[in-house]
Amino acid sequence: MVREDFWVEVFKLRGSVTPIVAGRLLGFTLFGAAVYLLFDIFQVHNGLATAHYEYIGVVLALLLVLRTNAGYDRWYEARKIWGGIVNQSRNLAQIGMLYGPKDRKWRENYARWVATFSPACCHSLRGEHSFDEIAKLSETIGTEEPQRLSKTTHMPMYVVRRIANMLKEAVVSGEMDRFFFLQAEAERARLIDHIGGCERILRTPLAQAFSIKIRRFLFLYLLFLPIAIVDAAGMLTPLVVFLVAYPLLALDQIGVELENPFSEQRLNHLPLDQISETIRSNVMASIDELPAMIPYSASPPHVTQPAAKPIAPHASPEPVPIAFQNIY
Predict the structure, then answer these.
(1) In Å, what is the CA distance from 187 to each residue of 94, 215, 302, 322?
(2) Quick one: pLDDT band at residue 288, thresholds 50, 70, 90?
(3) What are φ and ψ of residue 305, in 5° steps?
(4) Whether the Cβ atoms of residue 189 and residue 161 lie closer than 8 Å to each other
(5) Among 164, 129, 163, which Cα is nearest to 147's?
(6) Is the Cα dihedral 136, 139, 141, 143 positive or negative?
(7) Which pLDDT value is given to residue 46?
(8) Belongs to which family (predicted)?
(9) Cα(60)–Cα(279) distance, rounded to whole angstroms?
(10) Alpha-carbon distance values, 137 to 4, 130, 277, 279 (Å)
(11) pLDDT tier at 271, thresholds 50, 70, 90
(12) Inter-residue contact 256 to 71 (CB < 8 Å)
């Protein structure tokens, strides 16, 4: 986890919503300048008190924060679900490697299909179904299977069925104990639950009526803001509008960006490609058998002796502290 310097993040544009809201921000700022010029040229005074308008701004900011929190909850839930996909993929692979058939070909095919589940989920959640979009899977399962995968209605379920068929063959042939087969089936079922949780987040956006009302409220607030403050702010009206509109528009856009944590077109989307690659490397590394264990007695720990503290020449001994007893 990279911790960047304060000034780096202050002026950083990549990963920021500033470029997205810049057009809206400029529009409201120019409108504030136009309002000031009209009031100054025609010597108009509105006589409005700004205190009531400040209360409205506080209510609007609270609504935007609630929306942002709702979006972050979706993002964080999706991250937890993908953490479960990582764990279940590793568990499922280890059960097959340790308790499944010892045939090298079966082990390799099994590991490759387990490693294919996470990228298949990634492509499915992003709406990538054509062969050109999932062609990278050929590095894991060859060229023919991605072509079949692109023609299925649900790619993660196709991968899960392949894994289930391999487990069934292993238990029917007697090369896998039924107890471990049931454990593998439990892990496989959890993978199905995880992709179902991701699809629930993807296909259940925040209530549109809530979004419409907040944006309409935000538009009206920023539209009448320069009219309300022009008497008090004077020629600083455009600057005040800019300083007020920037955080409000940014919070609104952040809430939108967090609604879909899977799309690469959204800022701060989940790094699904990196997560899938981590799963693949972990699973594929488990194909090879572990080397024989070296007993502890044959390889005792290496203990480093602490270096002796040098004694300075003509050094006087340290005074010994005297313990005083309470005589009362």
Answers:
(1) 11, 43, 40, 66
(2) confident
(3) -75, 135
(4) no
(5) 129
(6) positive
(7) 77
(8) Belongs to the anion channel-forming bestrophin (TC 1.A.46) family.
(9) 43
(10) 34, 12, 11, 14
(11) very high
(12) yes
Determine phi and psi for 278, rounding to 5 degrees: -65, -45
Please state, in angstroms and rounded to a whole number, the distance separating the CA atoms of residues 122 and 102: 31
Taking residues 238-247, report their average pLDDT: 95
Residue 150 above 70 pLDDT?
A: yes
15-21's contacts with Cβ under 8 Å and 24+ in sequence apart are 15/267, 15/268, 16/267, 17/250, 17/253, 17/254, 17/257, 17/267, 18/250, 20/253, 20/267, 21/246, 21/249, 21/250, 21/252, 21/253
Which of 263, 275, 258 has the alpha carbon at shortest distance from 76? 258
Q: CA distances (Å), 279 to each of 78, 109, 285, 287, in order?
A: 17, 15, 10, 13
At 42, list the tokens: 């025609």
Token pair listed for 75: 């993002």
- Nearest CA-CA partner of 125 in 112, 138, 134, 136: 134
Answer positive or negative: Cα dihedral of 247, 248, 250, 254.
Answer: positive
Q: What is the pLDDT of residues 10-41, one digit of tens each?
A: 888 888 999 999 999 999 999 999 999 999 99
- Domain assignments of the chain as residue spans, ordered by start: 20-285
Tokens coding 310: 């040098």
3-state helix, strand, coil in the chain (%, to 5): 70, 0, 30
Which strand (E) or helix (H) includes residue 71? helix 50-99
The 10s digit of each residue's pLDDT in 64-103 is 999 999 999 999 999 999 999 999 999 999 999 999 999 9
Q: What angle do CA 253, 255, 261 make, to 5 degrees?
A: 110
Average pLDDT of the segment spanning 249-275:
93
Tell me if 92 sits within 8 A of 188, measured CB to CB: yes
> At which residue do the structure tokens 């409000």 appear?
248
- Average of per-residue pLDDT across 161-182: 96
The residue that leads in pLDDT, 121 or 291, is 121
